[in-house]
Amino acid sequence: MLHIHKVSEMTGVTVRTLRHYDHIGLLQSSSKTEGGHRLYNHTDLKKLQQIQFMKKIGFRLNEIKNMLNSSDWDWSDSLKKQLSYVKKEQESLSKIESTLRELIHGMAMEDESNEIAIQKVMQLANNDKELQERYRKSMFEERELKLWKKVPNMTSDQPDTLEWIALIGQLKRFIHEDPGCSNVQNIIRRMDEKRAETFGGETEFLDKLWDVRMSEKQSEQLGLYPIDQDVLEYMNAAYEIFIGKKG
Amino acid sequence: MLHIHKVSEMTGVTVRTLRHYDHIGLLQSSSKTEGGHRLYNHTDLKKLQQIQFMKKIGFRLNEIKNMLNSSDWDWSDSLKKQLSYVKKEQESLSKIESTLRELIHGMAMEDESNEIAIQKVMQLANNDKELQERYRKSMFEERELKLWKKVPNMTSDQPDTLEWIALIGQLKRFIHEDPGCSNVQNIIRRMDEKRAETFGGETEFLDKLWDVRMSEKQSEQLGLYPIDQDVLEYMNAAYEIFIGKKG
DNA sequence: CTTGAAACTGACGTTACGTCATTTTGTATA
DNA sequence: TATACAAAATGACGTAACGTCAGTTTCAAG
Fold this sequence. Notes:
homodimer, mainly alpha, DNA-binding, Multidrug-efflux Transporter Regulator, Chain: A, Domain 2
């Protein structure tokens, strides 16, 4: 049983905001003193955490209200989505980082490559917005989570799955560039590290990979994660290079 | 010379927003057609990028206006701050990530450690706000940048300096854990990669490292970057392990 | 039983745009 | 050169999510 100021302190949400949320029926304290002071409990905090996250990815308060009120809301599910969002954000940030470095590096010389980099930073910042939109949509449409469940030998209950999806997603973005370039090779390295954790030997990993491809090619109804053919091919090429460098 | 729609496309800022910025005098297009259509050039884009970043860390539009108008505004300086901010955000996100993983992991069992984790996530999200405040302040107070200039043989003109600071900052967080653990070793690996880029041989790197320690111990007035003694010792230990594994 | 900090309830203010409605401008085509 | 039609412009009003008073009531500590 926490009074409003304590909750504000703990969460960084202002007192006024908490009262506002009460007013609009988004988050009513589970109990009150006789005099009408709000008293929050642990469940209220859970709800507040949800609200914070959903706000962060761009939902409006009334949208959040509707979602939290809908009976089949799944807190565990939401957490997984948060995790997956955080990972994407990290990707986005590291891109921004390298572009900023380019910019800083080439700052002295006022040339054209500079102008391109500026646009890149802004587009990347924009990426964030698209990311948020994607996640907002995925909150409603269950499709994405269902897809994840289709990755063979990796249910979405294993948090690693999310990372795999993220890594594959990253690869996709470089598909028109050299599979030997450092960006791609770094991704592959991370994949290989994950592979070592998750599976056993190298052959097994490649087998799984091909399994996926075959199934996707043969039929979507086998219920596997649909990785595009070209992505798989690209991934394979990059992996070959990686092995070559390593061995 | 870009018309408003093109700029909007390139940057993800809506047309309405651009007009709004013009209206309040925050960003006026450098030229116009005879009929009054706004035409933006490269300098305008630079300015817009600044605005985007400053908005992201929580400035109000009129504050931004004042800062950009103040004659001694330094675009290069601002970029460095952006980079440093991005790195801090990454740290913050990776903390959030691991806490989310904790939460997801312990979701089945409805116990107390769970409640603590929830509070942790929220406090971490709150970190962001504090981060933003810190950076807003550092925009005015030059202190931070001055500190960076004190790292020997690395002026803040070398963008790598920022990464060093960030890496050292990361190390600090693990100082009570095993210097051989993978998190720490990954940081060290990145340091070693940076070292190879920046300096030459291994010995030289270690020499520099000791230089720093000696000077810090002897006197702060030599104007060096203050790395805590214990961090240095920890870093050294971790590095030794790294070398051991590598060689 | 008092008393000062903290909570409460309106009510109006503010920021940063979104959303019409209506009018002009620029340019590709007949 | 005329015309049409997308895209730009300018108000004006709307809105979401609180911030900021102002005046009142409740609570816990002495």
